[in-house]
Amino acid sequence: MSLTPLVYSQWMGCSWDFGSINVALEGLLEGGQTKTPKPMKTGTTIAGLVCKEGVVLGADTRATSGEVVADKMCAKIHYISPNIYCCGAGTAADTEKTTDLLSSNLTIFSMNSGRNPRVVMAVNILQDMLFRYRGQIGASLILGGVDCSGNHLYTVGPYGSIDNVPYLAMGSGDLAALGILEDRFKPNMEMEEAKELVRDAIHSGIMSDLGSGNNIDICVITKQGVDYIRPYQESEYKDKRQKRYKYGPGTTSILTEKIVPLELEVVQETVQQMDTA
Amino acid sequence: MCLQESLSNVSLYLMCLYLHFTHRYYVSSKTINKLIQVHDRIFCCIAGSLADAQAVTKAAKFQISFHSIQMESPPLVKAAASVLKELCYNNKEELQAGFITAGWDRKKGPQVYTVALGGMLLSQPFTIGGSGSTYIYGYADAKYKPDMSREECLQFATNALALAMGRDNVSGGVAHLVVITEEGVEHVVIPGDKLPKFHDE
């Protein structure tokens, strides 16, 4: 009788290479003249809470690249499935791609099985994937959704740890937002009260954290459907454009024009017959 | 990072844990569950990196289920502990997680096994682990008696946890205890303020 993996060879088909490749590359680049580009991080405040009728997720909309705001209207609440949405903090590209991948996987699953995926399934898929990459994928996610077993809110860390919680805040502004949530959260809140609480939590993150700012997005998921309110509240500190910066055709005068026809010859031609029988 | 303790008794056995997971220098969760059920009558206490521990227990849960289906009978606690040990030992460079596996099976009754960081597997009548365990080795050695009743076991575990939480700065929050017997599994939760106090002002 052998207990050790009868089906998979080592760590359930897992390889540790993903983490080590990045570390090796970093070593190569450090020594040379090239420097790795600074990834666009969503210094962020995201928050979520479970209320009586569903789940409320909230996020700010600022994306920073170093000390510059790269995107003032960044969408941090990503669609996963009709009943599951995900807020992402950390490296913007990582959260986008990870949630996209998850969404595709779950769509295929829904088509195959004919049912909406459960939140816990999404969480497990994310956990497996992030753990394999040993923290190299900088994505801290808050997953919220409503399925047949109730309203759920999960957090997934960049190393692959998960936790099931009734309320949560993540990102660089998490401590500020958590203060508000800890003070006013009650189980089974009414929808309006819950939306106000999430708004206040994100607002406090925006005020106290440099990496968070601009508008507040709210996403409300209930059994009946999803209400993605973008923006729920606009920032008071919007600046007005001074002029029109669009230029009509003819603004730049054309001095000379030269047309050169390109001589192309056919080098190779392949014909593939399509079987439409 | 967390304190784990398990006791073995003739007809029952108990496992208790703290919930307190620290990330950077703040408490990211006061209510993390560190007692993970890997089979009907087998539980696992986790210590170390949360991500590593959760991934290992997931893989172990799968392998133990599969093993149990192949053997057409519930797994032995020793088998479950071995699965964890294999995972920890074969991946010792990448992992940083320790476990206490405990449960009940028909062959040997209640048992406790500890799987350390590098993959060492030991069977013991009772064991403690985690960062807070260093503060209660004396207490545990002095107060443990074999063949305690269920109430005595619960009291012993609660006292030990309270003492460790009182001294270790990274342990705290809520205490979870699980009582596993042939009949079933009972989950006892004691919030921090209901724990016994020892010279606390």
Automatic annotation (TrEMBL), chain A:
MF terms from GO for this chain are:
threonine-type endopeptidase activity
Entry's Gene Ontology BP terms: proteolysis involved in protein catabolic process
Per UniProt, which keywords does this protein have?
Cytoplasm, Hydrolase, Nucleus, Protease, Proteasome, Threonine protease
Highest rank taxon of the organism: Eukaryota
Q: Which GO terms describe its cellular component?
A: cytoplasm; nucleus; proteasome core complex
Provide the protein's localization. Answer: Cytoplasm; Nucleus
* CDD domains according to UniProt: proteasome_beta_type_7
- Show the SUPFAM superfamilies listed in the entry: N-terminal nucleophile aminohydrolases (Ntn hydrolases)
Matching entries from Gene3D superfamilies are given as: Glutamine Phosphoribosylpyrophosphate, subunit 1, domain 1
User: Where, by residue number, is the active site?
Assistant: T44 (nucleophile)
Q: InterPro entries per the record?
A: Ntn_hydrolases_N (IPR029055), Pept_T1A_subB (IPR000243), Proteasome_bsu_C (IPR024689), Proteasome_bsu_CS (IPR016050), Proteasome_sua/b (IPR001353), Proteasome_suB-type (IPR023333)
What sequence ranges are listed for the domain Proteasome beta subunit C-terminal?
Answer: 240-271
Q: Where is it predominantly found?
A: cytoplasm
Q: Which reaction does it catalyse?
A: Cleavage of peptide bonds with very broad specificity
Binding partners and assembly: Component of the proteasome complex.
Q: Would you identify the family this protein belongs to, as annotated? A: Belongs to the peptidase T1B family.
Function of this protein? The proteasome is a multicatalytic proteinase complex which is characterized by its ability to cleave peptides with Arg, Phe, Tyr, Leu, and Glu adjacent to the leaving group at neutral or slightly basic pH. The proteasome has an ATP-dependent proteolytic activity. This subunit is involved in antigen processing to generate class I binding peptides. Component of the proteasome, a multicatalytic proteinase complex which is characterized by its ability to cleave peptides with Arg, Phe, Tyr, Leu, and Glu adjacent to the leaving group at neutral or slightly basic pH. The proteasome has an ATP-dependent proteolytic activity.
Q: What is this protein called?
A: Proteasome subunit beta
Q: Which gene encodes it?
A: LOC109907525
From TrEMBL, chain B:
The protein's annotated catalytic reaction(s) are:
Cleavage of peptide bonds with very broad specificity
Question: Would I find Glycosyltransferase among this entry's keywords?
Answer: no
> What is this enzyme's class at the first EC digit?
hydrolase
> What SUPFAM superfamilies does UniProt report for this protein, alphabetically?
N-terminal nucleophile aminohydrolases (Ntn hydrolases)
| Main localization of the protein described in the UniProt heading | nucleus
Keywords annotated in UniProt: Cytoplasm, Hydrolase, Protease, Proteasome, Threonine protease
Q: What is its EC number?
A: 3.4.25.1
- UniProt GO MF annotations: threonine-type endopeptidase activity
Q: Does the keyword Cytoplasm apply?
A: yes
Which Pfam families would you find in this protein's record?
Proteasome
Q: Which InterPro entries match?
A: Ntn_hydrolases_N, Pept_T1A_subB, Proteasome_sua/b, Proteasome_suB-type
Tell me where it resides: Nucleus
Q: Name one GO biological process term.
A: proteolysis involved in protein catabolic process
Q: Which GO terms describe its cellular component?
A: cytoplasm; nucleus; proteasome core complex, beta-subunit complex
What this protein is reported to do is described as: The proteasome is a multicatalytic proteinase complex which is characterized by its ability to cleave peptides with Arg, Phe, Tyr, Leu, and Glu adjacent to the leaving group at neutral or slightly basic pH. The proteasome has an ATP-dependent proteolytic activity. This subunit is involved in antigen processing to generate class I binding peptides.
Question: Which PANTHER family does the UniProt entry name for this protein?
Answer: ATP-DEPENDENT PROTEASE SUBUNIT HSLV, METALLOPROTEASE TLDD
Any idea what this protein is called?
Answer: proteasome endopeptidase complex
